[in-house]
Every structure is written in structure tokens, then in C-alpha cells.
Write a structure and sequence with these properties.
The chain is mostly beta strands. It has one helix spanning 2-11; strands at 14-20, 26-36, 40-45, 50-55, 59-64. Strand 1 and strand 2 form a beta hairpin. The longest helix is centred in the N-terminal third of the chain and has 10 residues, at 2-11. 16% of the residues are buried.
Length: 75
């Protein structure tokens, strides 16, 4: 996962992540990584249309962006 995050930052490419929010909600987000830190990822979130900070431990999965998506809430 770390290499995909770094590649997104370097190539300025969109990736998709499955993320566990602080409220326990699991969502799929399309992001473009701005910075990778030891415990956090700073990224532009295309769903929220804003730069957000994601805890690495809460990123459950990361994969190359695809145009097809599931609903915003992942069951």
C-alpha cells in the first residue's frame, strides 16, 4: 500500500481507498495523495472536494482508480 500512496503522490494520479472513519463508517474514496507522513496521508479527496488528512491505520485498502464505483457506503 505504501508504494501505491507514494506513486500517487509522485505521478499526481488518482487512487481509490476503502477508509474507516473515526465514527466507524466504512467508505470508498477517490483521492490524489499530496503528502505521505509516518502516520498520516494528506490527500485531495474528490468526494469531499477538499484536502483531507487520512490516518494510515484507517486505510483498509488502496488500489488504482477505476471509473466504476460502488455506492459511497461500502457494506
Amino acid at each position: 500500500m505504501e508504494s501505491l500512496l507514494n506513486r500517487s503522490k509522485q505521478d499526481k494520479r488518482k487512487i481509490d481507498v476503502i477508509y474507516l472513519s473515526h465514527t466507524g463508517e466504512i467508505t470508498q474514496r477517490s483521492i490524489r495523495v499530496v503528502d505521505v507522513r509516518s502516520h498520516y496521508v494528506v490527500a485531495f479527496c474528490y468526494d469531499r472536494k477538499h484536502v483531507r488528512t487520512f490516518r494510515k491505520e484507517n486505510i483498509l485498502s488502496a488500489f488504482p482508480h477505476t471509473s466504476k464505483r460502488r455506492d459511497k457506503g461500502v457494506s
